[in-house]
Specification:
Number of strands: 0
Distance between the termini: 21 Å
Oligomer: single chain
Structural class: mainly alpha
Strand content: under 5%
CATH architecture: Up-down Bundle
Number of domains: 1
Helix content: over 70%
């Protein structure tokens, strides 16, 4: 029993616990909001291209703001950055709530652009919060706790991804989008409180006298010259860019599986169910040996599950395949997180996290745009099948080209 509990010893750490709480409720609120926005936009437009534009409207501001966000994360107090940015998230959630409470008819007509404006602002906030959050979490722990922290953090994050879409879909289906936006405000408020309850306020280790452009260039040089970080992050970026199907799930629910927003919420949650199950396994059995091969295998399995999901006509089979995709993705998430934090110098963690989020984070939004465009011009099912096979092909190429990636093992 003691050996089992030791795998979760970080949960007794006051500041790390509050960090997890802040991350969990922020992600939970964002996921509830994402389901509400996706279904609302689809109800208004009935066009998958608009679903892709949601992702693009967040990705472009995110890309623009992430490099400054990484610089700030390495030169400012990261806890304070999180307090400011989560406050901004709360303002955005309140804006969507107010728009749908007092101007719902306008939103459904000529005012749809207002939703996209709020999503764009969220993209800017993500650009500043993502590097700071990643760097802050690992600043609160010891170096030999990084693999455990990566597993626990990823499992907590996936738990929010399970509950968020499911809750968002149920609330939207039983009530309306306004209720979903209200619940998002509550979750974001709890997240903000959690970040204020973190007692430690560590100072970033980076030199603040260097010019910002010099520091960004230094981070880019380290990232692109590293024999393991670059292929690992590139692999994830391309896999998510071509292999995901989350953006077009509203259309799958409507056209293929014939379910409403409740079904959308369940489907959106299923990858995270798989992620949580895999997260518990990798916490108990750390992914130290053959980590590179396991990363490549996880990405291949993710692509295969997407192909089979596209061909499924049964709701329960579709759920099972999304669970499989989430489990495969969790393996790669834990390994990639550990790679970044293991090989990144402390004084560069903010900048390297920023570059990583540009690779990985924007691939979600740009991948959503790609999915919407591909579904519009290739057809819904062919677009996902082609994307899944592309992911498998990319994993094979990276495995062949990058020997350090194949042979990666973490210290035991």
């Amino acid at each position: 029993m003691k050996a089992f509990l030791s795998k979760f010893s970080l949960l007794s750490h006051h500041d790390f616990r509050n960090f997890l709480s802040g991350s969990f409720f922020l992600t939970l609120g964002v996921q509830i909001q994402s389901v509400a926005v996706g279904w609302q936009v689809y109800e208004i437009t009935k066009n998958p291209l608009w679903l892709g534009l949601i992702g693009l409207s967040e990705a472009i501001p995110f890309i623009i703001s992430t490099f400054p966000g990484g610089h700030f994360a390495d030169t400012r107090r990261r806890k304070r950055i999180m307090q400011y940015t989560v406050s901004g998230y709360l303002v955005c959630s309140l804006s969507l709530l107010m728009l749908n409470t007092f101007a719902s008819n306008w939103i459904s007509g000529s005012g749809l652009w207002a939703i996209f404006a709020v999503i764009s602002l969220i993209g800017v906030l993500r650009g500043f919060s993502s590097p700071a959050r990643a760097a802050l979490g690992y600043q609160l722990i010891k170096k030999d706790e990084m693999l455990q922290a990566a597993s626990i953090s990823s499992t907590t994050w996936q738990a929010a991804f399970v509950l968020g879409p499911a809750i968002g879909g149920v609330i939207y289906g039983m009530y309306d989008c306004t209720s979903a936006y209200l619940l998002t405000c509550v979750c974001t408020s709890i997240s903000l409180l959690s970040y204020f309850l973190i007692r430690a306020n560590p100072v970033a280790a980076s030199d603040t006298t260097e010019p910002a452009l010099t520091k960004v260039k230094e981070g880019l040089t380290f990232f692109f010259n590293h024999p393991i970080i670059l292929p690992a992050m590139s692999l994830d970026m391309l896999a998510v860019l071509f292999g995901g199907a989350v953006a077009v799930l509203p259309m799958f629910c409507d056209v293929i599986l014939h379910t409403g927003p409740e079904g959308l919420g369940i489907l959106r949650a299923m990858p995270s169910v798989g992620g949580i199950l895999a997260g518990f396994v990798v916490t108990l059995i750390p992914l130290k040996k053959n980590a590179g091969k396991k990363l490549l295998a996880g990405v291949c399995l993710f692509g295969l599950s997407m192909v089979l999901f596209a061909l499924s006509r049964n709701f329960y089979l579709s759920c099972a395949l999304l669970i499989l995709s989430g489990a495969a993705d969790m393996v790669s998430v834990v390994i990639r997180s550990t790679i970044l934090q293991t090989f990144a110098p402390e004084e560069m963690r903010g900048r390297l996290s920023a570059i990583n989020y540009i690779f990985v984070g924007t691939s979600n939004e740009i991948g959503a745009f790609e999915s919407g465009v591909a579904a519009r011009f290739l057809g819904l099912i062919p677009s996902v099948v082609i994307g899944g096979f592309s992911t498998i092909f990319i994993s094979g190429v990276v495995g062949i080209v990058s020997k350090p990636m194949r042979e990666l093992e973490f210290e035991t």
